Every structure is written in C-alpha cells, then in structure tokens.
Amino acid sequence: MQLIKLDATDSTSAYLKNLMLQQETEDFTVVQAHTQYAGRGQMGTRWLSEPGKNLTFSLLKKHAQFFARDQFCMTMLTSMGVFAALKVLSVPDLRVKWPNDILSGPSKICGILIENITTGSLIQSSVIGIGLNVNQKDFGTLEKVSSLQLVLGYPLDLEEVLQLLLIHLKDTFKLLQIQEVEEIRSAYEALLFRKDKPSTFTNREGEYFMGFIRGVSPEGKLRVELEDKALRLFDLKELQLLY
User: Fold this and answer.
1) pLDDT tens digits for 159-170?
2) Measured between alpha carbons, how far apart are the two ends of the chain, in Å?
3) Is residue 145 domain-shared with residue 232, that is, in the same domain?
4) Which domain range does residue 205 map to?
C-alpha cells in the first residue's frame, strides 16, 4: 500500500485519478489531504470539512474480474468496511443510510463517493473517496451532522483512525472474491437505517409518502414497500428519506 499525504488539494479523488493517468499506480494507493477545497458528495453536493480535524482521503481498488453490472457491490463493501471500523471504536447506534452515508443515531458522520473506471463490461478499478468527521465540533447551520469526538466524548488520533479504516476496508474488499453478490447484499441490508420501519419520504415533485425500506435491488436501487403493499424501486434522484 502506498500512502500519499498532501497539505492541500481540491479533491483527493481528482488527484488520484490524475496520478493514474501519469504513472502506473499500485492497488490500494491512498491519497490523504489535510485540507480539501472541493470534496464532493452524492449528486454533486460539496463535502465541507474543517482543515486538520477530519479524515478526507481516496483510495484505489483495482479489480481482476469485476462486472459492471455488479458495481453497487463496491458501495456496499465500502459502507460495510467503514461500519466495521467504527464498530471497533464503539461508535454508538451505527447505521448505513442508503446508499452509503454512515450515521451515528440520526446524524451523518461519514460520506462515501465511488467512481468506477470501466472497460466494456468490466470495471478495471474504483476510486473511493471517503470523508469522515473525526474531531470537528462545529458544523454551523448543517443539521443531522456529527463527528466521532461529539458522539464518543473525546478527540481521536487521525492517523490511528485512518489505519483502522484501511485495515477493515482491505478485509471487506476480499469478500468480493469469496462471497456471492447476494450474500454481500444481505449483509449490507442488515445495516440499513430505517429498514422495515415506517418511514416518510418525498419524491422528486416534493410530495410526501409513507413506506417501509425492504432492501436494495441488484443495481442498488432502494426497495420500498408502499402503503398499498406495492413494492417499488427508487434511485437516488427519485426520493429523499425524511426519517
């Protein structure tokens, strides 16, 4: 594993992708930044992080035989790896909010963004960006956001947390070779926030509706059972979970 530490960059994922264009980059290369100016979240949102307080890093995972149809596996495995690491730290009330936000109670503490590089029907590599709130205590007007220090009550060593994350991510990625996709999906679904509980959503038109999260489809869409017992699939742009 190669670990590249930067004082500042616009985006660790952009830096890593540019590095891949310039030279042969080994599997599990990690780029970490003290300050990240333009970190991105899902659907183009910005990931705001106080410099030096949190972990903002990206890692490269190369694949030997990984079909593009199974690309949601990397979302599931990354979420499971981060979850396992935070479980070791005794972070309370952990859940995965579909598709890949990590929550402690109702508050988000970690975001994940994955970009897959494909050739034909195969994914050659994945660039995985992770932002984990570690020691930041003030999030301004942001709601339902927290950090490890806030939920645990004490500051943590960033380097120790990073190494713990990398150990568990590496172990979890091995499941891609030894488990069926259905087994991985079942393990991921067991961690889902609000699974099998009555929940409120809004659709893209802003309309409210009730439903039960029942899991995810092979493509990673959210399976929701509606009040009329009908089962519908939603992608990330089609609904928002309001708790």
Assistant:
1) 999 999 999 999
2) 39
3) no
4) 198-241
